[in-house]
Amino acid sequence: MKKDYFLSLLDNEDELVYLANKRRNEAYSNIITFSRNIFIPVTHQCRNLCAYCGFVSEDPKTWMKIENYKNLLNKAKQFSCSEVLLTLGERPEEKYESARKFLENQGFSSTAEYVNHLCDVALNHNLLPHSNLGVLSYDELLLLKDSNASMGLMLESASTRLMDEGEAHFHSPGKNPKLRIETIENAGKLKIPFTTGILIGIGETWKERIESLLVLKEINDKYNHIQEVIIQNFNPQPNTPMADISPPSIQTMLDTIAIARAIFPPEINIQVPPNLNKDRIIMAIRHGANDLGGISPLTIDYINPNMNWQEDKELRDELLTNNFKLKERLPVYPQYEKYLSDKIRGIIEENYKNERPFPP
Question: How many separate domains does the chain show?
Answer without folding.
Answer: 1
